[in-house]
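Q: Here's a chain of 208 amino acids. Please give me its 3D structure as tokens.
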Amino acid sequence: MYDIDLFDNDAATVAALHVEGRKVVCYMNAGRWEEWRPDAAAFPEAIIGANLDDWEGERWLDIRRIDILAPIMEARMDSCRDKGFDGIETDNIDGYLNDTGFPLDYDDQLEYNIWLAETAHARGLSIGLKNDMDQAPELLAHFDWALNEECFQYEECETLLPFIEAGKAVFNVEYSLEAGEFCAQARDMGFNSLKKNLDVDAWRESCD
């Protein structure tokens, strides 16, 4: 499975990966505004919140305003579908746990995440739950697989076992740990795990 950026890749790239027998997932940021994206001007200033300390040019979105975000996110998902992607990774869908500049709560996030899943499914696309592990029990029925960063580092991978028990894949990436520190446990839990660097380039060390 290849997880690649919506805007940085075209239909020919997706088609070439399909020829190689790969599944191709469309990365799109659903919880933050990114100033360099071609549709950045479509986001009204009123729904763009706090900056992220470590991510220049990214700011949180007011996910309570689905009425405003819907046409933007739907257009992105349409592009994923039209380029031939198999599924979607919607990133940063745990804003309620962060200092976003908006009073987001658990239910706000749950409503938005379920809306994202339904919108992806309406386009024939699978969708993965990216992090947001606290809401995994409620979102299990709506998401087709899970994608996690560093659950072994923070000793919280057990929260994703319901996906495995439901026959749904769990993909995991670790950045700080060495492969030997988590791969055996990942295999025992049925996770598909990798070690990658923080640049998230092509380099990887697989647990296979």
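Q: Can you summarize the key feature?
A: The chain is about 30% helix and 25% strand.
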